[in-house]
Amino acid sequence: MTIEDAIAIVDAALEHKRLSNVQEQLFRQTWEGKTYAEIAEVCGYDSSYIRDVGYRLWQLLTKGFGERVTKHNLQVVVRTHAKRFQENVSEAGQPFANHLIALTNPHNAETSNPSMLNDGLNAKRCDWGNAIDTSIFYGRTQELATVKNWVIGDRCRLLGVFGMGGIGKTAFATKLAEQVQSEFTLIAWRSLRNAPAVETMLSELVSFLTAQAIASLPQDFDRLLAMFIQALKQSCCLIVLDNVESILRSGETTGQYSEGYEGYGELFRQVGEVRHQSCLILTSREKPNDVLPPDSSDLMVRSLQLAGLKEEARQMFREELAIAPETRKLIDFYCGNPLALTVVSRSIYSMFDGNIQEFLNQETNVFGDIRHLIDQQYSRLSDLEQQVMYWLAIEREPITTDNLRQDIVPMVSKSQILESVISLRWRSLIEKNAHSFTQQPVVMEYMTDRLIDMAYNAAIERNPEFLMSYALVQHRAEDYIRETQIRQVLQPLTDRLLAHYGSVDTLQRELQSLLETLRDRQTTIGYAQGNIMNLLRASQSDLTKSFCRFPERVTEHSDLQILERLLASDRAGGLATWDHRIPWANNPLAQQTSESKTQIRSKNLYYQWTEGSLEQLQQELKQQSKLRKKYHAWLNDTEFAAIDADFEAVKITDTLNQPVDARLVFINEVNIVEPPAGLPTPSDRRAQARKRKQEMQANRSKKLG
């Protein structure tokens, strides 16, 4: 017995009543042996809601069949009553199959009239399969209007609806199909979640479109596809294929078909290229290769990438939460993802008595179904895509593909990075910001959690491979980014390791041992040594203090005296190391610009000085430890200054008590002057440096190639 036969028997048993869309979908999935959790995932509902729907459905069927129906005896009861029903119909002298066809029509009651079947192929017939209930639908007014115009006005043949899990693709496609169904004669909905073979799917569709029994159809793909295309020509057909990502290959950049499913690519290609009067709509978390991107000029093949809900997302909450100002924070963090907001709103009521702020204070925003949802998408990524995802979480803010390429070790080609970024965009896992890329907040939190988990396992299993590939804290990052990396990554990781080892001494002993293991390796150690050193520092003192440029504990004869001289001086003064970092906020140029202390502290002084003058100063201080010098420097990209200052060569110690060469500076006078004609600005010089670096890398790659 097919699922459609079973639905027909249920309709007969319920007489004038009909299953709701969600009840029918639950029935179909139960018939296939799915658990409530699996059904919830398919339907896009919370598992507790699906369980409640199931309880009411079994009660309804118990009453209709006159005997107890449960999730476990469903098929037995339906088959028993199908046999009785068949005997009754046969006694009346009517074909049983006609009764089943007449009874099977879930969305459009007017087509359940058996007399309509006599009108031939062009009679209005609908098979909505397991399309979900869209009686409750929020927003998407503009998107629906746009896509309706594509389908009706432009007569689009192939339409792809894409977006990350939970964004509402299935609901959108259902609502769209319902709104345009009057333009079509034959409507069929199918899910590819269980990855049916293309021949199986085509057989079902051709059988429905041509009113032929599946047993009478050919078995080979080419003949089935030809019959399908012919049906699209003869009738106005609307076909919806949901969950297309199920037939796409995981572990590679998006769009590749799984082995044995390449026929779907040919199906989509012919639907888009061959002239006909029908429309095929597909939904997917990933874009198949045969569907064109949104900026394509082809009117026959279109695609829409669904973003999250905006202000209309408030309608998903109860009235008291819908108007709460904190609700905006939830919508922004989850980027309007309907499924995520549904899960969160239920948690807020059940766990926090409707107090949004209490929920936000937990700082645990990725949990339960939300984590499971992103887990599914992450597991499908290629190795390089996963690397990009980790680095975007580490960087914390938008970053260019060139910077991403510099982060990743070993270095990969520009084309590989570009392909991965494009693929991740089509998976809706990253967002474009001007010429840079970043992650949605909820995805970034998920990836940060994964980063900590992987680093933790690498440390306790004494396998440094992961620690070699990723920098937990980036030395070259802006101060505020580095502070976030410490707070969000290094501190939680250190806390977990301390809990595992039980004491600071044991943790430090293990980290030192891991460090020795690295030194014994013959291969490159990447970021591992820096990560372990950072963990050692984090385990021995307060992170806020230990990650200053220089230690809180200073030596008696160098750092303390320098600090006292700076504090006692009535001149603008500061201390700068020769790696061009400014360790303290009282930077000698701070009083001359309007920039904040954070911006000043993170500046690279090399680009402030005119070319060659900083190196000259370093040589002069080697010959004479104290000197007064007049020099020129950029204060920022627009202000150029003549500066009179006293310099002194000094030695200080870093957080590991290692000596560091530095210079003590006291400003005597600063005057803003016109820069020499053609003198490069700091931005110009940074751009030139990047270009030189890229040229060197290109030449090196060319030699290696």
Please give a structural write-up.
- The chain has 705 residues and is of the alpha/beta class.
- The chain has 5 domains: 3-104, no CATH class; 141-305, Rossmann fold; 311-374, no CATH class; 375-546, no CATH class; 559-683, Beta-Lactamase (2-Layer Sandwich).
- The strands form 3 sheets. Strands 1-3-4-5-2-6 form a 6-stranded parallel beta sheet, sandwiched between helices. A 4-stranded antiparallel beta sheet has the order 9-12-11-10. A two-stranded antiparallel ribbon has the order 7-8.
- β10 (626-634) and β11 form a beta hairpin.
- The longest helix has 23 residues, at 479-501.
- The radius of gyration is 33 Å and the shape is elongated.
- One of its GO terms (molecular function) is ADP binding.
- Residues 1-79 form the vWA-MoxR associated protein N-terminal HTH domain.
- Residues 142-244 form the NB-ARC domain.
- One of its GO terms (biological process) is defense response to other organism.
Protein topology:
Elements: H1 3-14, H2 21-31, H3 36-43, H4 47-65, H5 74-91, H6 96-103, E1 125-127, H7 141-153, E2 158-162, H8 169-180, E3 186-191, H9 198-210, H10 221-234, E4 237-242, H11 262-273, E5 279-284, E6 301-305, H12 319-322, H13 326-333, H14 338-352, H15 356-361, H16 368-378, H17 383-395, H18 401-407, H19 414-426, E7 431-433, E8 436-438, H20 441-460, H21 465-469, H22 479-501, H23 504-520, H24 528-540, H25 543-546, H26 559-568, E9 573-577, H27 597-601, H28 613-623, E10 626-634, E11 640-653, E12 659-673, H29 682-704
Parallel strand pairs: 1-3, 2-5, 2-6, 3-4, 4-5
Antiparallel strand pairs: 7-8, 9-12, 10-11, 11-12
Helix pairs in contact: 1-5, 1-6, 2-4, 3-4, 7-8, 9-10, 17-20, 18-19, 20-22, 22-24, 23-24
